[in-house]
Amino acid sequence: MATPYVRYQLHLHGPQIGGRRSWSLLFLLGLLLVAGPALAQRKRSDAIDRTRKGRIKGITVENLSNYNQRFFRPGIYVAPTFSRFIIEQSSNYLLANQQGRGITANSIISPGLALGFIGDIRLGDPSTPFHLRFAPGLRFETRRVEFTGHGAGMPDTIRTQEVSTTQLELPLLLKYQSDRRRNTRVYMIAGLKPSFTVTQRQNTPAINQLNVTGSDLLLEYGVGLDLFYPYFKFGPELRFSHGLRNILDPRNNTYSNSLQSLRTNSVTLYLNIE
Fold first, then answer.
1. In whole angstroms, what is the distance from residue 12 CA to residue 19 CA?
2. Of 35, 60, 67, residue with least CA distance to 46
3. What is the pLDDT of residues 55-68, one digit of tens each?
4. pTM for this one?
5. Is 46 helix (H, G, I), strand (E, B) or coil?
6. Which domain holds residue 31?
7. Is residue 135 within 8 Å of 173, Cβ to Cβ?
8. For the domain that residue 224 is a member of, what is the CATH number?
9. Which backbone phi and psi does 43 adopt, to 5 degrees?
10. Does 1 map to a domain?
11. Going by DSSP bridges, is the β-strand pair 101-108/72-89 parallel, antiparallel, or unpaired?
12. What's 77-93 look like in SS3?
């Protein structure tokens, strides 16, 4: 009596099994050939823009991929600025006002321009979010104060005092930046800025009698956005400055006597290229 074998009952003879194995190997090889590129593309899925239906719109290339590896990053900046004085009236103004005469001071926002260089230093390994930035430069600005004189039975008279200066600025700032997302990154920045007056211009000294001291110290803070391009990084940055010192240079004239202090206040848009 012949022993029943399952392979005979199911007609699984040797040649048939060998043929099925070869077809299975070919099928697995085909899967690998098809799935291989798909797996490779999945590694770049964060750089692929797709529509809602899954169609590919475009692939984003990471510019300056080794930028975080650099310890020192030089650059330049151009910065339009708007500044004014924070004014505090003197006791002479209060006394004159009680007597029915006096001068009221009002600061006017004035435009200016700053130019300079950037030195950015990484504080730690390439993954650290902290950087130290030194950005020396020159600032050209004209700040204006409008004085209104008034008295009993007298019409108001308005005189504008202009303080035109060229200043050497030496800001030292701490930068905290976020993780990079493709070719963009946001950051916050803050620090101190010593400022020294290089020149103070008075077109008509007989009219413009208001003067400021030769140095100042400012608190600065702001936010910015790093945009990475193939050959450089562009960073628009909005920064606010507040003077910590009284820069009024007291003189024996009507305008200086009516003031107790002048402090600088400005808003600057920095256009950084590194």
1. 11
2. 60
3. 665 567 888 888 88
4. 0.73
5. helix
6. 6-59
7. yes
8. 2.40.160.20
9. -65, -25
10. no
11. unpaired
12. EEEEEEEEEEEEECHHH
Q: Are residues 95 and 133 in the same domain?
A: yes
Separation CA 233–CA 211 (nearest Å): 40
For residues 86 and 202, membership in a common domain is answered with yes
Domain check: are 24 and 76 in the same one? Answer: no
- Rounded distance between C-alpha atoms, residue 212 and residue 221, angstroms: 24
Q: Which two tokens stand for residue 257?
A: 């006597």
Domains held by the chain: number: 2
Q: Which residues contact 19 (CB under 8 A, 6 or more apart)?
A: none
Cα–Cα separations (whole angstroms), residue 257 to 95, 132, 143, 157: 11, 42, 19, 17
Please identify which residue in the block is written with the tokens 């070719």: 183
Give me the numbers of helices (H) and strands (E) for the chain, helices first please. 4, 13
Q: Where are the alpha helices (DSSP H) in the chain?
A: 6-9, 14-42, 91-98, 254-257
Domain boundary among 24, 42, 59: 59
Q: How far is CA 215 from the centre of its chain?
A: 25
Kindly state whether residues 77 and 210 are assigned to the same domain.
Answer: yes
80-111 confidence digits (pLDDT tens): 999 999 998 887 777 766 666 677 888 999 99
